[in-house]
Amino acid sequence: MTFSLGIIGAGQFAGSFAKLFALHPGVGDIHVTDLLPERAQALVDEQGLAGTFDSVEDMLASDVDAVALFTQRWTHGPLVTAALDAGKHVYSAVPMAITAEEIAGIIERVERLGLVYMMGETSYYNPATVYVRERLAELGQVFYAEGDYVHDMDLGFYDAYRYSGGEGWKATASYPPMLYPTHATGGVLGALPTHAVSVSCVGVPDRRGDGVFDREVSMFDNDVSNATALFELAGGGSMRTNEFRRVGYPSHLKESRFRFFGTEASFEQTAIHSLWQDKQGVTDVTDHLQARPSVSEDDPSLAHVSPALRAAFVSGTAPVHDRSRLPESLEGAPNGHEGAHHFLVDDFVTSVNEGTLPPVNAWVAARFTLPGIVAHESMRRGGERLPIPDHGDAPADWTAARRPVEASAG
How far apart are CA 16 and CA 93, in angstroms? Predict the structure, then answer.
């Protein structure tokens, strides 16, 4: 059984994922569309895909079964909504959306239409998150956790925004840090069975003076490059996250890092070490969580990825990952974000073909994303503590009501 897929956005992420989708035995024909038609055609030519569409509207009006979004961050909410309304299953790069209203609309459609939605959050599959999920009971009561996404603008983001934003790239490079929260929140909430219920956030205005994070230039009216949020968690406990874009830190080594403190044990990471600790001592688990390179940084599928970002696309899986459920066709293929990409693709394909909920479904994605949206508002109010809305757990009886893949010639 296979389904046909439309890729929306042929930028730096799309090539790596297009190759994985094409290798997966559960996917058939793949088409591409982009605001710049030459980029869509180049991706099709490079990877031997089925063809292009002139526009998103044309793709959504076609008979493709599902779409995968790799567009700019603030476009995801409207594009996901349009795709669901067109009857397509949706894989979306992060974040889910940038407003609470967009998130509510996506959840309503997924529940009403019975379509698969998955947010491609890498931190759910981060080796540290996988490891803590496996040993969660040994921590005792987890009363405090941290998730940091520390990615300096100089290490890839300038190039990425120039590539995607054209001449007006500085207006979009000021994207507010807390509206891209899931590489931090997803690693914590992907391990702990809880969600955030309130937040207070403090931001640091940028001082670089290069026209980025300048309110007079920013389409987001944002001058903050670094922000820290403290969240109250349901059932007790707290979570702190840092979203840093001006930071003296080697983000190419580990851009997402985590800490968990429980009454019986704890877990901590630095850029190069991972430690499990209890009341008797410390165990270095770095090797167990270290992702091994999957391909060379010169792999053709990474041609459109800026050199500063390529390290995130070549890391393979770590020993803690269970690859036994992955199709053999993905073995040795480009991976990335500490081994997450193969699992992201397989979970989406499996959910569409079997009509099941993916791990980071709409309800989980909302719990990863909404805390950052509310944190950003708290920051703009001087750190005022604000409640975080919650859409609850996914319905226990949810199954895909529409199975177009059964009739697909894909």
Answer: 13
180-197 confidence digits (pLDDT tens): 999 999 999 999 999 999
Cα separation, 186 vs 178, in Å, equals 13
How far is it between the farthest Cα atoms of the chain? 62
Angle at 67 between CA 83 and CA 406, to 5 degrees: 100
Q: What is the pLDDT of residues 219-249, one digit of tens each?
A: 999 999 999 999 999 999 999 999 999 999 9
**Alpha carbons 329 and 51: distance in angstroms, whole number:** 22
Which class is domain 123-309+361-387?
Answer: alpha beta
3.90.25.10, 3.40.50.720, 3.20.20.60, 3.40.50.12280: which CATH number matches 3-122+393-407?
A: 3.40.50.720
**Where in the chain is CATH 3.40.50.720?**
3-122+393-407
- In Å, what is the CA distance from 183 to each residue of 21, 88, 348, 405? 22, 26, 18, 31
Give bridge partners of residue 274 from the DSSP assignment. Answer: 269
Strand ranges, E, within 9-96: 27-33, 51-52, 66-69, 89-92
Rounded Cα–Cα distance for residues 117 and 103 (Å): 12
8 in Cβ contact with 70 (< 8 Å): yes
pTM metric for this prediction: 0.94
